Amino acid sequence: MDNSKFSKIALILSVVALAASVVVLIMSLTSNKGGGEVVDTNPGVVTMDSAGNINIAYVNLDTLLLEYKYSIKLNEDLLTEQAKAKANLESRYRSFEKKYNDFMEKMRLGSFISHASMESQQNDLLNEQASLEQLDAQLTEELMIKQGEMNEELYDSVMNFINEAYEGKYTLILGNAAGSNILYATPGMNITREVIDELNARYSTSPEIQ
After folding, report:
1. Which residues of 116-150 are buried (b: 16+ CB within 10 A; e: fewer)?
2. Strands, DSSP E only, in 61-181?
3. What angle, rounded to 10 degrees, do the helices at 69-109 and 4-14 form?
4. Is residue 189 assigned to a domain?
C-alpha cells in the first residue's frame, strides 16, 4: 500500500504549533498591521523625556511569546487538538491498511466468491480511501485556521497591552527578533522582561483576557 498520504498528514500535524506561532506572530508584530500611520522621525536623533531618559525601547518577541502565559496556554491547547487529530487519522489509516492488506491477500489466493464480490470490496476500499483523503484535507485546513485565529488573539493581547501600558512613556517601542533590523541597542532599552512580567501578572488575575 502507498502510505504517502498517511506520511504527509502525519508530518503536517506533527509540526510543533509553538514554533509555528512564534514565527507567524513575530512577522505580524514586526509589520505595520492595518496600514497604521508611521511616525517620521529625524534620522540620528533619539527622543528623550523631560528627565533626560531615552524613551525608545524594544521587546524580544521570540522570548515574549515563549514566556507569556497566555501564549503558552493557547499553544498547548492547539497542540492537544493536533495530537487528537493525528491519533484519529492514524487509527483510521491503520484500519484502512488492514482492510487493504486483507483484500490483496484474497486476490493473491483467489478466494473471492465471484468477480462481482471482488469489485464490490474494491469499490468500498476506494470510497474509504477517498473519505480519508477528504478528512486529511479538512483537518489540515481546520488546524491552519485555528493557528491563524490563535495568532490573532496573541497579537491583539500583546498590542492592546503595550498601547495601554506604555502610552506616553515611550515614543517608540520596537519588536526585536532573529533576523530583525535591530543590530545593536543599549541594555537599558530592552524592556522584554518588564513586559512579560506585567503581561503574566495581568493574565494571572484575568486569564480570559485577550
Report:
1. eebeebeeebeeebeebeebbeebbeebeebbeeb
2. 172-176
3. 170
4. yes
Model pLDDT for residues 187-206, shown as the tens digit of each residue: 889 999 999 999 999 999 87
- Judging by beta carbons within 10 Å of its beta carbon (0-12, 13-18, 19+), is residue 195 exposed, middle or buried? buried
The residue among 88 and 43 whose pLDDT is bigger is 88
Give the Cα separation of 72 and 113 in Å (integer).
Answer: 58
- Whether residue 56 has pLDDT greater than 60: yes
* Contact in structure between 195 and 61 (CB atoms under 8 Å): no
- Report helix, strand or coil for 46: coil
**Among 144, 154, 161, residue whose Cα is nearest residue 198:** 161
Q: Is residue 210 part of a domain?
A: no
Domain that holds residue 35: 4-205
In angstroms and rounded to an integer, the radius of gyration of the C-alpha atoms of the chain is 26
Q: Is residue 105 part of a domain?
A: yes
The answer to the question of residue 158 being in a domain is yes
- Choose from 3-7, 130-134, 164-168 the range with maximum mean pLDDT: 130-134
Number of domains in the chain: 1
Q: How does residue 207 score in pLDDT terms, banded at 50, 70 and 90? A: low
For residue 18, give Cα distances in angstroms to 23, 24, 29, 48, 184: 9, 10, 16, 37, 27
User: Which residues lie across from 57 on neighbouring strands?
Assistant: 173
Lowest mean pLDDT among 7-11, 26-30, 63-67, 124-128: 7-11
